[in-house]
């Protein structure tokens, strides 16, 4: 009964480095999301996917790319990390659209120095 | 611009008291209004949710009050307990688009 699993949990990057955050869900959910959480700003949607092979931009997509090659996995990539991308990243999934509750992972704390 | 505005930013309540967190939204297309509870180091977890065709929903000590005409909704926590100390987020959504408030850090003092 894992739900949504995110790896890694913590990461420190140097400016300009790249990395990929992995999200895996075992609930057969169609929709998956990537959010970033910053103090005083709540959660902001980066990218989302409405099914295997699909991706779309959210509220703050610049500097990020995503892929969903398999239904259960949703990857978030940073090609050239910037200090402004220091944040806590959360992956979430839902059975269908947002008019249902989301299941969130436990987050990845990323620091870009 | 923030589509969901949440207040207060922080709230301190005595054990046994009532905690009240308020939210206001702008987009009338939103059709689902959840509240999430987040403990330090954890992801948000769905607490309770309401759809705009009802004005109130109660689950145990947690109640959502919804005012469609004012585009406002609130979370009431009755008989607040120290274990309720967490950050609470309201949200509003339509299809894939879920917008979150900035969060309220609740501290319940014993």
Query: What is the makeup of the main sheet of chain B?
Result: 6 strands, mixed
Low-confidence stretches of chain A: none
The major pleated sheet of chain A works out as: 7 strands, mixed
Give the beta-strand count of chain A.
11
Average pLDDT reading of chain A: 94
The percentage of residues in β strands of chain A lies in over 45%
Per DSSP, what share of the residues of chain B sits in E-state strands of 2 or more residues? over 45%
Taken in chain order, the helices and strands of chain A follow as EEEEEEEEEEE
Helix-residue proportion of chain A: under 10%
Shape of chain B: globular
Q: Tell the overall outline of chain A.
A: globular
Oligomer: heterodimer
Instruction: Write down how many β-strands of chain B occur, each being a DSSP E stretch of 2 or more residues.
Output: 11
Short characterization:
Chain A is mainly β and 113 residues long. Chain A is built from no helices and eleven strands.
Describe this structure in words.
The complex is a heterodimer of chains A (113) and B (110). Chain A is an all-beta fold and 113 residues long. Chain A has no helices and eleven strands. Chain A has strands spanning 4-7, 10-13, 19-25, 31-38, 42-49, 56-57, 64-67, 73-78, 87-94, 103-104, 108-112. In chain A, strands 2, 4, 5, 6, 9, 10 and 11 form a seven-stranded mixed beta sheet that branches. A four-stranded antiparallel beta sheet of chain A has the order 1-3-8-7, with no helix packed on it. Chain A starts with a strand and ends with a strand. The mean pLDDT of chain A is 94. Chain B has no helices and eleven strands. Chain B is mostly beta strands and 110 residues long. The mean pLDDT of chain B is 95. Chains A and B meet through strand 5 and strand 10 of A and strand 5, strand 9 and strand 10 of B.
């Amino acid at each position: 009964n894992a739900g949504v699993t995110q790896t890694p949990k913590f990461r420190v990057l140097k400016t300009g480095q790249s990395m990929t955050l992995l999200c895996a869900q075992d609930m057969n959910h169609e929709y998956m999301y990537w959010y970033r959480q910053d103090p005083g700003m709540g959660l902001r949607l980066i990218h989302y996917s409405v099914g295997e092979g699909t991706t779309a931009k959210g509220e703050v997509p610049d500097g990020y790319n995503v892929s969903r090659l398999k239904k259960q996995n949703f990857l978030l990539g940073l090609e050239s990390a910037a200090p402004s991308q220091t944040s806590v990243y959360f992956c979430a999934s839902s059975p269908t659209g947002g008019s249902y509750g989301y299941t969130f992972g436990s987050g990845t704390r990323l620091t870009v120095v | 611009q923030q589509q969901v505005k949440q207040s207060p930013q922080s709230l301190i309540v005595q054990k046994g008291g009532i905690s009240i967190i308020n939210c206001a939204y702008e987009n009338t297309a939103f059709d689902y209004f959840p509240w999430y509870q987040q403990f330090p180091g954890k992801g948000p977890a769905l607490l309770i949710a309401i759809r705009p065709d009802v004005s109130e929903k109660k689950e145990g000590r947690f109640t959502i009050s919804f005012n469609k005409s004012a585009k406002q909704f609130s979370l009431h926590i009755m008989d607040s307990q120290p274990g309720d100390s967490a950050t609470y987020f309201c949200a509003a959504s339509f299809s894939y688009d879920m917008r979150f408030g900035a969060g309220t850090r609740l501290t319940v003092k014993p």
